[in-house]
Amino acid sequence: MEYRLLGRSGLKVSELSFGAATFGGGSEFFRAWGSTGVDEARRLVDVCIDAGVNLFDVANGYSSGLAEEILGKALSGKRKQVLISTKAFFPMGAGPNEVGTSRYHLIEQCDASLRRLGTDYVDIYHMHGFDALTPVEETLDTLTTLVHAGKVRYLACSNFSGWHLMKSLAVSSRYGWPRYVAHQVYYSLVGRDYEWELMPLGLDQGVGALVWSPLGWGRLTGKIRRGQPRPAVSRLPKTAEVGPPVADEHLYGIVDAIDGISRETGKAVPQIALNWLLQRPTVASVILGARNEEQLRQNLGATGWKLSAEQMAKLDEASETTPAYPYWHQRLSAHGERNPAPVPAATRS
């Protein structure tokens, strides 16, 4: 297992990390992801630690806190061996102040997460979304207070747009407050929007990417192919209601390319999709989710080897889409001397 610095910080995280959204199954939505209980969670945690994984990711909103509780129990006695990442933003009750990143909500939710996790501190605390109603200064001042209190060690965000992140970094720099060192993002071979603005920003500002749903909401498990019925057991029908749409032919073209590389390498479809991500700029860690030990062990096999430059290029070409404006227009000058693109879209790895 390789360990990488998390953005512009001194914290080293394993290139693969484990996501505990499958723990608990506290609602119909989360049951589509998984319903792992404490005993199975302990087994999955042990498999991860044995493989060298040191980062475990969760959120207060996963199954209304149940996932944090189960992860805390699964990590009992192992706290000093691992890093824990959790998040706040989404509603945790019906009250008007039980959502967002206000001082009121963050202090309350950070303490609640610590109780559920059974720990005195979290290593990485994410803002799970951007709160357009709370002043950025209030959010970042509160996070600074939590850092100084020893309850939080590093700050990160998730699902921000470029201007959300850049404004936050500018405010932190202005006041000398701790900066976001990581951005938890959706990024996969079937969803490369991250490359348009957030990846160049991450390169420029030293913000590492923690990648969620790296298999495209279950589309790159190897179970979906042209001319075959969709699997009977899958989270995709439910999660696709809120997840990004992907045209069938685009997906099939990507899977065809992966299948060709699978025949060359002997690696499974998800292992190839994950290995592609591990070679992309800014990626610090790819977060794995797994319903069971078999899935987990297969996905952990994405490390210890590398796709060739030619194989990376094949996957780049198969997964390429036309970006939204102004990014398609900026590509017109990507090779010019006055305005080079920070990351030429599908060619740099």
Describe the model:
The protein has a single domain (3-331), classed as TIM Barrel. It contains 13 helices and ten strands. The chain has helices spanning 28-33, 38-51, 66-74, 103-117, 136-148, 162-175, 198-205, 236-239, 248-265, 269-278, 293-300, 309-319, 327-331, and strands at residues 3-5, 12-14, 16-19, 55-57, 83-88, 122-127, 152-158, 180-186, 208-212, 283-288. The strands form two sheets. It has an eight-stranded parallel barrel with strand order 3-4-5-6-7-8-9-10, surrounded by six helices. Strands 1-2 form a two-stranded antiparallel sheet. Strand 6 (122-127), helix 5 (136-148) and strand 7 form a beta-alpha-beta unit. The longest helix has 18 residues, at 248-265. Mean pLDDT is 92; it is low at 344-349.
Q: What proportion of the residues is helical, as a percent range? A: 25-40%
CATH topology assignment: TIM Barrel
β-strand number: 10
Q: How large is the radius of gyration?
A: 20 Å
Oligomeric state of the chains in view: single chain
Helix/strand order: EEEHHEHEHEHEHEHEHHHEHHH
In CATH, the homologous superfamily goes by the name NADP-dependent oxidoreductase domain
Poorly predicted sequence stretches spanning 5 or more consecutive residues:
344-349
N- to C-terminal separation? 20 Å
* Structural class designation: alpha/beta
